[in-house]
Structure formats: structure tokens, C-alpha cells
Write a structure and sequence with these properties.
By secondary structure, the chain is α/β, with parallel strands linked by helices. It folds into two domains: 3-126 and 307-336, Medium-chain alcohol dehydrogenases, catalytic domain (Quinone Oxidoreductase, Chain A, domain 1), CATH 3.90.180; 130-282, Rossmann fold (3-Layer(aba) Sandwich), CATH 3.40.50. It is built from nine helices and 15 strands. Strands 3, 4, 5, 6, 7, 14 and 15 form a seven-stranded mixed beta sheet that branches. Helix 7 (267-271) links the parallel strand 12 and strand 13 (275-278). Helix 2 (130-143) crosses helix 3 (159-170) and helix 5 crosses helix 6. The longest helix is centred in the middle third of the chain and has 14 residues, at 130-143. The two termini are 14 Å apart. Bound molecules: NADP nicotinamide-adenine-dinucleotide phosphate. NADP nicotinamide-adenine-dinucleotide phosphate binds at residues 47-49, 130-131, 134, 155, 157-161, 179-180, 184, 226-227, 248-249, 251-252, 279-281, 324-325, 327, 329, 333.
């Protein structure tokens, strides 16, 4: 291929992104600088976090610039190298852009990965990647569940949520999952081992709170929160004394044109002596070796399953990204943009 197709940010979205917010352009394939590399991206990780990077608001990373490729984690193969540590054909992973080719080394970062260690190289995006690490650290380091306690997970059928529920079960907890629709509810119980499933769609905070109470008659000790808004409000009404809320994500609010919805039952943290802590998975990078060892062992033992939803073609980047907010992704959302 002699061109570099790039999915760029044309303007900042207001509310739910629309196709006009993006452009698919072609630029020359980059050349590696001295000591640098070029990566042919094969898989793109489509993450809800990308939506936040499109806004010009304070975050843990600068916003994507207008006209720049939309930032995303990618997995690909070295296609040109001036770095003796990287041979052409090596598999690497990095925070790049939704584009055919990205620069690595001297100005970019690409981590070598070994596809022979996992059933599929895409597992480095799901179970052995960002989703697995987020579920692992968020649940175990922030939620701190103890055997016998009740863990409530929202966004429970998604990439992070499905793993959080399974890790809770591995640690001897009762796991209750909240997700959209009957089909996802079935998957929570049958595929991920949740003890109870709740469909949040079309329910008021009061209805949801009552359903959580009936699934968790002894109260909730750990909330693994992926959704925010009404779902978080309902969870807060079911906390036990000393409960921990691990605030992983608030996807219901990412496209709110009116701004944040806000947690309206925070008073419950006071009366239950409970805590709520936000986190970013990279906060725990010092412990990544232990996390990979545990996740890899549970995967090999068949105690963790992870589903991946792979769409194809960089021209489908927009509808594939939107799936995350429509709830039509059935597992870790990945876009395949090259041959492996
Ligand atoms: N803190 C961190 O380091 C970190 C890292 C990765 C991800 N996250 C967060 O973790 C969460 C899950 O991310 P993921 O990558 O695993 O995505 P995912 O759960 O695989 O996909 C997103 C899911 O969110 C649900 N959703 C979308 N809009 C919703 C709404 N308005 N109300 C309720 N549910 C809605 C949909 O499922 P339903 O069909 O069930 O609605 C959708 O399938 C996100 O909030 C993300 O920002 C945080």
C-alpha cells in the first residue's frame, strides 16, 4: 500500500458524534526517522475513552487536535525499521492513531508483543490488554472485595464489565451485573457466571434501586461503575456500611450535550461511611507483571472468558465506534484495518 489512510477529527463533536465530525484522508506513508520505526496497524482498539479525548477538556491526556488522526491503541507489525531492536514483521502495540501506518521509536512508543503467548493477538486488547488490566486493578485494588461480599457491576456485559464480574467470582464474591436487554442478561449468567442480571433499560432510578435490592438482599459491598447517571444513583441507594465504589467509567454521560448528569445520591457515601474512588488503569502499572500473571493463569485455566467484536475496514471506523454508545458491541470493540 502506498498511501496512509487516516481517520481524523474534523471538528469537536457536540453530544453524540456524527459522521461530519470526522474525515477519512490519505497522506503519504511515513518514513522511519533515525533510530525509529514504522508500524502497519492491523487492529484498532475502539474505546469509550476516545470520546473524552475528542473534547477540549482537562483530562489525563491532551485532546486530539483538529485534523489529527483520532488517537487509539493499535496492534500492528513493523513495516520499516531503523532500530536494531525491531525487525520488520515484529508484532507491536502502542497508543497511535486510527491510521494504516504510525511512526514508532524516536517520537512514538511501540511495545513488542508475542502473539504465540495468547490464543489470538487481539487478546492483547481484551483480556490481556487494557480491558483486563482495568477490570483487574479497578476491582481488586480500588474495590477491594472480600470473599462472601456482594459486587455490583454496571456495563456488565461489556469488555471491562464482563471481566470484572468474572474476577469477582474468582475471588468468592456474589456478582450482580447490570446491562441492556434480555440477551445481554442471559450472557451475564451463562457466559460470565454472574449470580443475577438486571436490565437497566427503560427503568427509573427507583425501579432500578428496587431490583438491585432484591438481587442483593444483604446490600452491596463493592460497586464497579462503568455507566454513571441513573445507574450509579440506583447503586448508591444499596450500599452497605463501608462499601467501596470503584468509578471506572460514566459512559451514559460521555455524549451528554447538556453536560454531566451528576451523581445525585452522594449523601449515601456519608451515611454508609462509604468511599468512591476514580481510577485510570495505568495508575497501577507498577503491578502489571502480577496482573498479567493472574489474568494469563485464569485464562489458561478456563476461568476467564472474553468476547471480542471485530468489525472490518477503516472506512467503518465511525459506525464501529458508535456501537459503544448504542450498545450493539458484543464484547471488546475492535476494528481490523489491515491483513495479519
Ligand atoms: N478507568 C479506566 O482506566 C478505564 C479503562 C477502560 C474503560 N473504562 C470505562 O469502562 C467502561 C466500559 O468500557 P468498555 O471498553 O468495556 O466498553 P463496553 O462496555 O464493551 O461497551 C460499552 C457499553 O456501554 C453500554 N452503554 C453505552 N451507553 C450507555 C448508556 N447511556 N447507559 C448505560 N450503558 C450504556 C453499552 O452496553 P449496554 O447494552 O449494556 O447498554 C455498551 O455496549 C466505560 O465507561 C469506559 O470509559 C475505564
Amino acid at each position: 500500500m502506498t498511501r496512509n489512510r487516516q481517520f481524523t477529527l474534523a471538528r469537536r463533536p457536540h453530544g453524540m458524534p456524527v459522521p461530519e465530525d470526522f474525515a477519512l484522508i490519505e497522506t503519504p506513508v511515513p518514513e522511519p526517522g533515525p533510530g525509529g520505526t514504522v508500524v502497519r496497524n492491523v487492529y484498532v482498539s475502539l474505546d469509550p475513552a476516545i470520546r473524552g479525548w475528542l473534547d477540549d477538556k482537562p483530562s489525563y491526556m491532551p485532546p486530539v487536535e483538529i485534523g489529527a488522526p483520532v488517537r487509539a491503541s493499535t496492534i500492528g507489525r513493523i513495516s520499516a525499521s531503523n532500530d536494531p531492536a525491531y525487525a520488520v514483521g515484529d508484532w507491536v502495540m502502542g497508543l497511535n492513531g486510527i491510521e494504516d501506518y504510525s511512526l514508532g521509536g524516536a517520537g512514538g512508543f511501540q511495545m513488542k508483543i508475542d502473539p504465540t503467548l495468547v490464543p489470538s493477538v487481539t487478546n492483547y486488547m481484551s483480556i490481556m490488554g487494557g480491558a483486563g488490566l482495568t477490570a483487574y486493578f479497578g476491582l481488586l485494588r480500588v474495590g477491594k472485595p472480600e470473599a462472601g461480599q456482594t459486587v455490583l457491576v454496571s456495563g456488565a456485559a461489556g469488555s471491562v464489565g464482563s471481566l470484572a464480574g468474572q474476577i469477582a467470582k474468582i475471588h468468592g464474591c456474589r456478582a450482580i451485573g447490570i446491562a441492556g436487554g434480555a440477551e445481554k442478561g442471559r450472557r451475564l449468567i451463562e457466559a460470565y457466571g454472574y449470580d443475577a442480571a438486571i436490565d437497566y433499560r427503560g427503568k427509573s432510578v427507583e425501579q432500578l434501586a428496587a431490583e438491585i435490592a432484591s438481587a442483593a438482599p444483604d446490600g452491596v459491598d463493592v460497586v464497579f461503575e462503568n455507566v454513571g447517571g441513573d445507574v450509579l444513583d440506583a447503586a448508591l441507594l444499596n450500599l452497605n456500611h463501608g462499601a467501596r465504589v470503584a468509578l471506572c467509567g460514566m459512559i451514559s454521560e460521555y455524549n451528554s450535550a447538556a453536560g454531566p448528569v451528576g451523581a445525585r445520591n452522594l449523601f449515601q457515601l456519608i451515611v454508609k461511611s462509604a468511599s468512591m474512588s476514580g481510577f485510570i488503569a495505568t495508575d497501577f502499572m507498577a503491578e502489571i507483571g502480577q496482573a498479567y500473571a493472574d489474568l494469563g493463569r485464569w485464562l489458561a485455566e478456563g476461568r476467564l472468558v472474553s468476547h471480542e467484536h471485530i468489525d472490518e475496514g477503516i472506512e467503518n471506523a465511525f459506525p464501529a465506534f458508535l456501537r459503544l454508545f448504542e450498545g450493539t458491541n458484543q464484547g471488546k470493540m475492535i476494528l481490523k484495518i489491515g491483513e495479519d
